[in-house]
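Handout, page 2. Input:
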Amino acid sequence: MNERKTNRIGIAVVEHQRQFLIGVRDHSTTLAGHHEFPGGKCEPGEAPDVCAARECLEETGLSVRPAEELLYVEHAYDHADVLLHFWLCHPEPAVPAHLLTEDLKGFRWIPAEELPALNFPAANAPLIDLLINAYVRS
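Output:
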């Protein structure tokens, strides 16, 4: 029997003025072409919030501070089983103002109301619903 490895993933849901930092997965990766929040695999012993902040800095160059875990999702894709920890994060107070408006290594600031039109992986659906209810319908 071939048991699949489960990956713990820390994801930074970076919010600033009702906009979220969103990228598109590279053509050479799994789920290519799908939209994504900054994030990645947790290192052994690494807490998901610490992972989310680390991955955001590595992927975008933006320092963030995790505020709260929004959602935890277990999902089985064809290629892997994942435990997704979605952490609401905010840019650090000392972040230069231009980083809050410009593209960051391929990640862009997207208004909350545009999130449903984007092509996120299936496991992100409950998060998108949560964000729409919190930031658009509120």
